[in-house]
Write the C-alpha cells for this entry.
Amino acid sequence: MAKTFEELTLWQDSKSLVVEIYKLTANIKDYGFKDQIQRAAVSIMNNIAEGFESGSDIMFVKYLNTAKGSAGEVRSMLYLMIELKYADEDNAKKIIDSLKIISSQIYKLISYLKK
C-alpha cells in the first residue's frame, strides 16, 4: 500500500491529466469555460490527495466520490469543447478516454475501501 498520495498511480495519472487539460485550453479565450474545466480537472487530483491524507477510509471514499464527480464534469465539458470547436476532436477524445480510465480506477478504489 502507498505511504503517500504521490505514490498512487491514480494521483499520478490525474496530475498528468491536469497538465493535458491546461495544454488543451491554453489558447481558449472563453475565460469562464477555461477556468471551469481547469478547476474541475485540478479537483480530481486534489481530492485524491486530500482524501488519502484524511487518515480515514470513510473520508477517503467521500473525497474519491468528489474526484469521480469532477472527472465526469471534465468529460462533459470536453464534449462541449468539441462541439464549440475549442479543441481538436482527436485530442479531446484521447483525454476523454483517459478520464474514463481514471473514473474506473476511482470506482475500484472506492469498492476496495468499502470492504
Summary: Residues 16 and 45 are 9 Å apart (CA to CA). The chain has one domain: 7-114. The two ends are 15 Å apart (CA to CA).
